[in-house]
Amino acid sequence: MAEQVPLGIADAAVPRGSHTRGSHICTFFSGSAQRDDVVVPFLAEGIRSGQKCVAVLEPPGPRDLLTRLGGQVDQGHSVETGQLELPAPADAYLRSGQFSTEDMLGYWREVATATQDAARSSFIGATGEMQSVLDHPDGRAEFFRYESLLTAVISALPEVVVYDLERFGAEVLMDTLRTHPRVIVGGLIHDNRYYIEPGKFLTARGITR
Question: What's the fold here for domain 4-10+18-205?
């Protein structure tokens, strides 16, 4: 049996070194405090375990997150050594000036390669949100194309993607569930029965692969 890596969220864990789709996880929150109730323990567990950790979050951003992390781990040392990275969304998701699936998949590949080259860790804990893209209906198709394809691309696991229920309606909620094999509900991680394989999802939505 593969070694299980804890997520810091209840008793949830994922297998190390696996390419399983089951580590692409979504969760929902209402307001930044609830978001950080998931993100902070997730990152703290990763730091304690020696994992490379990347968090791409919209405001309130890194300063508030670092303050909360400081109650659990030495976040200053983690930032100094590069173990913890907190890039702004513009530096990760919007490097070409607009959201691009290819750019984003390339970004995560770069993070994984740099981590392996530096011999920091064979495992990356990543978390992110992209509310500003989802605020514009024209950007949603491209975003969920990315989310669907990311499941097959991720090799440095896991990634927990967080969505604010106060900002988005049922359409975004359902597409989120359709593109993430696992979901965190009530502090527990569950297999997601609404998940659709990328090929079927993209075809049904008329989205070019």
Answer: Rossmann fold (3.40.50)
* Amino acid code (one letter) for 150: L
HSE on the CB side for 107, CA within 13 Å?
22
For 44, 148, 151, the CA distances from 198, given in Å and listed in that order, are: 31, 5, 8
Q: Which of 82, 89, 85 is nearest to 54 (CA)?
A: 85
Q: Is the dihedral of CA 51, 87, 180, 177 positive or negative?
A: positive
pTM of whole model > 0.70?
yes
Cα separation, 208 vs 74, in Å, equals: 44
The per-residue pLDDT for range 63-76, each reduced to its tens digit, is 778 888 888 888 88
Q: Using the Cα atoms of residue 24, residue 156, residue 73 and residue 32 in order, give the sign of their dihedral.
A: negative
